[in-house]
Amino acid sequence: MARPRSEDKRNALLAAATQVFADDGINAPTARIAKAAGVAEGTLFTYFSNKDELLNQLYLDLKSELRGAMLSSYPRAADVKQRARHVWLSYIDWGIANPHKRKVVAQLAVSDRITAGSKAVSAGAFSEFNAMVEESMAKGVLRNHPPAFVGAILVAVAETTMDFMGKEPAAAEQYRTAGFEAFWRAVATS
């Protein structure tokens, strides 16, 4: 009879995968992940049938964590710029606090091993942000771009901002503010 799966062991495998992929890239062997998690490689395959399943589950878990950070205490009644600033600041704070996770999310986002289904689930998790973008475009507050394009602009400017904040911590707040203003000017009508 098979042992029941442990949520703690699954989480340890995902945490180990995050560390290994951040250090060595997503092509790192599963044996290294299992070793970092303190389990046998066969145990990894008890939780994930293959490496692609591990990659997709890690992608979904990290995106879910990011979504939670970005939309926790989301000011639904605030104006568009305040809501966008909240999302921006939350994303920046998450990225700065979780540099390994940020690095792995970036790798997985461009990997052809992430399925269309996983990408769709991830995109759906940000539906509230997308709805705000569409509503704001309809009201003429934001330029008429697809929400995915607005999200891509946010990510690109945020990544640049976090890179500079990391290189020059003394100027971090200046970069955080300048980055948001650059993003806002790129998407807002005025």
From TrEMBL:
The keyword DNA-binding applies. The keyword Metal-binding does not apply. Residues 29-48 bind DNA. PROSITE patterns: HTH_TETR_2. It comes from the Bacteria. Residues 7-66 form the HTH tetR-type domain. Keywords: DNA-binding. Pfam families: TetR_N. PANTHER family: HTH-TYPE TRANSCRIPTIONAL REGULATOR RUTR, REGULATORY PROTEIN. This is AcrR family transcriptional regulator.
